[in-house]
Amino acid sequence: MKKSQLIIKKYMYRVIFLLAGITLLVTLSCKDELERSVYCTSEIPMIDEYMEDEANSLTDFLSLVDKADYRGMLYAYGTYTCFVPTNNAVQEFLKEKGVTIESISEEEAQAFVGIHVVNDTLAISDFVDGRLISATIRNQYLTVATKNDTSGDVYIEVNRQARIIEKDISLGNGYIHVIDNVLEEALQTVWETIESLPDVEFSIMKELIRDTGFDKVLSQTGDAVFYSYFLQCNEIFRELGIDTRPALLERLQGNTPDVTDDAALLLNLFSIIVFRSANM
User: Which of 34, 89, 249, 275 is the most buried (most CB within 10 A)?
Assistant: First the structure.
């Protein structure tokens, strides 16, 4: 019995030694192969690498990406959608502003680039007319609209400022949509925009907004403050026989008899109907 155990142990040691030798050979072989080769996780270029190719005419925007110190972001794996203006569009914008890529500060470059980069991967098929489902890296929302030009060609307009001229360039970390103009951040609040509209067309709604205090609400700003306000022109009201605030109030009283005695409440309820937070 003891002799049998010795024989078994002897063969077990041989098997273990043989397996160890095989493992060592495989390890050395793999090491040699790795030393002689270059391994890539993907051959698909990243967003910044695509812009780096001068043949694509997007190098000026990339220079602003570098100025903003955002190159690392657009080279890393992630989910981004970049609306990239052509070199001609960037140069026209800089000329209009009287600046150069070299003279722009890092903060200005970050604001410039930030509105063009959405923190999500969105192909054209994901677009629905109106606000995009995801915000930019500046936490603002872009809008898109499907339009027809004078030749009858269908195109997509971004932020009412630029036309997509090349779409769905799929890259390692997202999409590029090439646009023919530079996008700019809105400088006015919703109320400032409404207030600047001509009274002859929007006096009834402007008076209503002031009376209900919504001018103060629509003047608020901040990273998480976004509003939509559905503004009706005077012509729409006139078609309903409404040309003054009292006439509007009379119609509201007729439509909501339960609160006819509270004029302020009626006007506020109407204002709420045409007001929406963009975060809803």
Answer: 89
CB 92 within 8 A of CB 98: no
Q: Rounded to whole angstroms, how far apart are CA atoms 67 and 138?
A: 16
Instruction: Select from 275, 251, 273 the least CA-distant residue to 263.
Output: 251
Query: For residue 119, with 0-12 CB atoms within 10 Å meaning exposed, 13-18 middle and 19 or more buried, which class applies?
Result: middle
- For residues 116 and 122, give the distance between their C-alpha atoms in angstroms, rounded to a whole number: 13
Question: Helices 245-255 and 263-273, interaxial angle, to 10°?
Answer: 90
Residue 194 pLDDT: 87
Q: What is the pTM of this model?
A: 0.66
Rounded mean pLDDT of 80-89? 97
Question: Between the CA of residue 143 and those of 153, 164, 175, 228, 229, what are the distances in Å?
Answer: 20, 12, 17, 12, 15
- CA–CA separation, 13 and 21 (whole Å): 12
CB atoms within 10 A of CB 106: 11
2-to-7, 9, 13, 90 alpha-carbon distances in Å: 9, 11, 17, 88
Q: What token pair was written down for 171?
A: 């890259």
Residue 263 host element (H or E)? helix 263-273
Amino acid sitting at position 184: E
More confident residue, 83 or 39: 83
Query: Edge-to-edge, what's the strand order for the sheet holding 130-131?
Result: 117-118, 80-85, 174-179, 162-171, 154-158, 143-148, 130-131
